[in-house]
């Protein structure tokens, strides 16, 4: 019997186009132009993280993205009152609530959904009430995922950063243990009715591996693609990524998937 494997979407994160722009001031390179190119190359959605310190994406970038995109915009943001108000005003198709610390170099760890209490639950409710699909960016911890379902999130995005670091450092045993945690978390979330996304630090190799986890429906990838675009162009980088994801997905049901 033929297995119908659900498709895997690619969300392209354009934050680090803005990082390069902001290194010199001015308007170039423009993350909105990168987003349009990414869409032409086959991105299913665009992700942008409006950090509280505006170190890369800025408010005006979010407005312009919302104005021009024909694919869903995934607004990544800290779970603060300021960001919730901005998101409600902008009305993107999706919001991903992430933990944020000013002094961090990049997003460390997952959102503490259990510790977020009623305040986080209310934020999820306010965003959902205006039709925004809410995702919580979490470490692969089953109790956090169960709480995400309890407070009405539609999606969890599993933080793949620790796994990718172990892979890059050649820490094979740690990488295998972390991947097993991701696989368990994905199954548990799907069983609770959550849609499962994954992202952070993925490259073609790791994306190809995680693509073979059937419950995972979307990967959000930025830093690698924007870096690889220097060598292969954005279209070329996205083509390579799509190929890696398709190969990983094709392994499902053949007995060769992880
Ligand atoms: C939450 C997340 O994984 C992405 O937003 C990614 O972190 C890119 O932004 P930073 O590199 O600023 O964390
Ligand atoms: N949510 C993860 C994301 O959008 C991209 O993360 P990265 O590929 O830039 O590390």
TrEMBL record:
Q: Name one GO biological process term.
A: pyridoxine biosynthetic process
Query: What GO annotations for molecular function exist for this entry?
Result: pyridoxine 5'-phosphate synthase activity
A GO cellular component entry from the record: cytosol
Task: Please indicate if the UniProt record lists Cytoplasm as a keyword.
Answer: yes
Broad class of where this protein is predominantly found = cytoplasm
Concerning InterPro entries, the annotation shows:
Aldolase_TIM, PyrdxlP_synth_PdxJ, Pyridoxine-5'_phos_synth
> According to its UniProt record, which residues of this chain constitute the active site?
49 (proton acceptor), 76 (proton acceptor), 200 (proton donor)
Q: Which residues bind 1-deoxy-D-xylulose 5-phosphate?
A: 15-16, 51, 56, 106
> According to its UniProt record, in which pathway does this protein act?
Cofactor biosynthesis; pyridoxine 5'-phosphate biosynthesis; pyridoxine 5'-phosphate from D-erythrose 4-phosphate: step 5/5
Q: How does it assemble?
A: Homooctamer; tetramer of dimers.
The record's function comment reads:
Catalyzes the complicated ring closure reaction between the two acyclic compounds 1-deoxy-D-xylulose-5-phosphate (DXP) and 3-amino-2-oxopropyl phosphate (1-amino-acetone-3-phosphate or AAP) to form pyridoxine 5'-phosphate (PNP) and inorganic phosphate.
Provide the protein name.
Answer: Pyridoxine 5'-phosphate synthase
What gene is it encoded by? pdxJ
């Amino acid at each position: 019997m033929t297995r119908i494997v659900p498709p895997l979407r690619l969300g392209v994160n354009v934050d680090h186009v803005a990082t390069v722009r902001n290194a010199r001031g001015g308007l170039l390179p423009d993350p909105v132009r990168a987003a349009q190119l990414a869409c032409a190359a086959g991105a299913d959605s665009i992700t942008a993280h409006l950090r509280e310190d505006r170190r890369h994406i800025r408010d005006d970038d979010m407005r312009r993205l919302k104005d021009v995109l024909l694919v869903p915009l995934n607004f990544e943001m800290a779970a603060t009152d300021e960001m919730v108000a901005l998101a409600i005003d902008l009305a993107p198709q999706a919001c991903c609530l992430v933990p944020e610390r000013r002094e961090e170099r990049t997003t460390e760890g997952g959102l503490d959904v259990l510790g977020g209490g009623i305040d986080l639950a209310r934020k999820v409710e306010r965003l959902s009430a205006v039709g925004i699909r809410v995702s919580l960016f979490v470490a692969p911890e089953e109790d956090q995922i169960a709480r995400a379902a309890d407070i009405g999130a539609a999606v969890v995005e599993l933080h793949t950063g620790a796994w990718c670091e172990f892979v890059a450092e050649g820490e094979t045993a740690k990488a295998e243990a972390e991947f097993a945690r991701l696989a368990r978390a994905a199954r548990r979330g799907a069983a609770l009715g959550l849609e499962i996304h994954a992202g952070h630090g993925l490259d073609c190799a790791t994306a190809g591996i995680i693509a073979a986890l059937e419950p995972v429906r979307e990967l959000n990838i930025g830093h690698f693609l924007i870096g690889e675009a220097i060598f292969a162009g954005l279209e070329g980088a996205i083509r390579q990524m799509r190929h890696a994801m398709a190969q990983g997905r094709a392994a499902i049901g053949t007995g060769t998937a992880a």
